[in-house]
Amino acid sequence: MGKISLVVGVIIGILFSVAFPEVAQTINDAIMPSIQSIGEQLINWMTN
Question: What secondary structure letter does DSSP report for 48?
Fold first, then answer.
C-alpha cells in the first residue's frame, strides 16, 4: 500500500509541476531546505 501511494504521489507531483510551474517552484523553494536537513539527519543516523 505504501509503494502505491508513493507512486501516485510522484505522478500527481509531476502533473502539478507541469500544470503550475510557478506554484511548484515556490513550493519547492519553501520545502527544499527542510528536505535537505531531514536527509542529512537520516544520513547521520544511518552512518552512526
Answer: -
